[in-house]
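Q: Got a minute? One more chain.
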Amino acid sequence: MSKPIATFVEFPVVSDPRGNLCFAEARRHAPFDIERVYFLYDVPSGSVRAGHAHKALQQILLAVAGSFDVKLNDGFGEQTVTLNRPNVGLLIGPGLWREINNFSSGSVCLVLASMPYDEADYFRDFETFARHVRQ
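A: Always. Here it is, folded:
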């Protein structure tokens, strides 16, 4: 794979002696209106989350605590990135298979999504996904 298949998004941080504050605004820091927010936590050691792709949904994944790896596949190649900074997210567009693994103890994965949950937007089988994107 010659070019990255997802991009990093850095969110603003306001620092003072009381600590840091990080924020995100739809259409300013996220390139979409944020329609859903959810988070993964207490993921058991060795577990793999996600294991799907979306047809239209865009997401930004953030490691707001700890770290984890995100393995992405566009049907032609694969890349793995580690998220471990709470103000740096990974923008994942539609048409990318994703698996999230290697969760550190106490990690929290926050997800900003462009659409409400819709089961019809998912590819749950990798081979079906790969055939679709290669057409």
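A: The two ends are 18 Å apart (CA to CA).
Q: Perfect, thanks.
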